[in-house]
Amino acid sequence: MNKYILKSKTIIGALIALLPAVSVLTGITFTEDDTVMINQTADAIIQVIGGVFAIYGRFKAEGKVYV
Questions:
Q1: pTM (2 decimals)?
Q2: Are 12 and 6 in contact (CB under 8 A)?
Q3: Could you read off the pLDDT of 9-39 as tens digits, one per residue?
């Protein structure tokens, strides 16, 4: 099955991963305050995604958890 390149999660992830390197090559710079803000925003987004994923997983689960 073929799909358009920008519908590939792998390609999108690779492009996002390359953004910092490309920004440096193009002369875009970030101050220390910018870096702190970006890190805090990324942390918040990751926490929200993790929480939503955990809640979704709990409702979607079919069996009980055991050790």
A1: 0.55
A2: yes
A3: 888 889 988 988 888 899 888 889 988 998 8
SS3 readout for 1-67: CCCCHHHCHHHHHHHHHHHHHHHHHCCCCCCHHHHHHHHHHHHHHHHHHHHHHHHHHHHHCCCCCCC
Yes or no: say if 43 and 37 are a contact pair by the CB < 8 Å rule: no
Structure tokens at 2: 């073929």
Q: What value does the mean pLDDT take over residues 48-64?
A: 86
State both tokens at 42: 């990324």
CB 38 within 8 A of CB 30: yes
> How many residues in total does the chain contain?
67
Task: Classify residue 60 as left (phi > 0), alpha (psi -120 to 50) or beta.
Answer: alpha
